[in-house]
Amino acid sequence: MITNRAISPLIETAELQALVGSAKVVVIDCRFSLADTEFGYQQYLSGHIPGAFYLHLDKDLSGPISDQGGRHPFPDPADFSRLMADLAIDKNTHVVIYDSSRFAFASRLWWMLKSVGCSPVQVLNGGYPAWLECGGAVDSSAVATSAEGFAGNGDEPLTFDNCLSKDAMLTAQAGGAWLIDAREAERYEGLNEPIDPVAGHIPGAVNVPWQGVTDDSGRARDVNAQKALWQAIGTDEQVVVYCGSGVTACVDLLSLEIAGYTNKKLYIGSWSDWCSYL
């Protein structure tokens, strides 16, 4: 059992291999593609870490879309609590999450679980490709969820702490918080906008693209490289991160966690929410 002392946000494949098949960990597959929203589940059915559940970005990790709020708003906390119960996750369950996209989708669930007070929660370093590379076992049968006989999180209502609306983000920024745009430089600079109807960035935001957190193999760069990404920011300063829709911003939040930053928040709606008001 991992204790809450000095928990790394990342777990290596060898560590996970020692846990798979036991009751000590819940493993979740978050593979996804924005271009083909069923790609991730089809990949899961083709092969996944034994015992892993599959969660879909749109269906499980996002709520209904409205005129404002962005393309991937968080689900209702009550719905998310029921989902946790279905997976037999409470706030003390050891959860390991993976994808095959340089943490793009695994980090979203990592941040959501951390935001409701779960610990320990870890992301598999290198994702599913690293698991295959180390010779990890593979299963192709879907794992059913069931809350039968599980008390879940009781009657305690969940809230997504450290997650901000547009107005709360502006208040934080006015109070001196750093605002970080995690999108690619071309999107930040307004030179290319492939998804949202308006190009550009929120005034005052600094660009730290999420792809810089990992190397070409999808593994996190070492801790010194993570710290270098944030060297302009004091470790005690507040940092608010956004991206296009509150997904890949969580990769930057993962990097901040590795680098030792504790005062960090997510602007949930991100640029897709911001530009809906323009």
Describe the structure.
Strand 4 (95-98), helix 4 (106-115) and strand 5 (121-124) form a beta-alpha-beta unit. The chain is built from ten helices and ten strands. The chain has a five-stranded parallel β-sheet. The protein has a five-stranded parallel β-sheet with strand order 6-10-9-7-8. The chain folds into two domains: 10-133, Rhodanese-like domain (Oxidized Rhodanese, domain 1, 3-Layer(aba) Sandwich), CATH 3.40.250.10; 163-277, 3-Layer(aba) Sandwich (Oxidized Rhodanese, domain 1), CATH 3.40.250. With 278 residues, it is of the alpha/beta class. The chain starts with 9 loop residues before the first strand and ends with a helix.
Provide key terms for this protein:
alpha/beta, Oxidized Rhodanese, domain 1, 10 helices, disordered N terminus
Question: What's this entry about, in short?
Answer:
This protein is α/β, with parallel strands linked by helices.
Mean pLDDT: 93
Order of helices and strands: EHEHEHEHEHEHEHEHEHEH
Low-pLDDT segments: 1-5
- Side by side, the strands of the main sheet go 1-5-4-2-3
- Largest sheet composition: 5 strands, parallel
**Approximate strand percentage:** 5-15%
CATH superfamily of the largest domain: Rhodanese-like domain
| Domains, number | 2
Helix fraction, binned, reads 25-40%
Number of helices: 10
> Could you give the distance between the termini?
49 Å
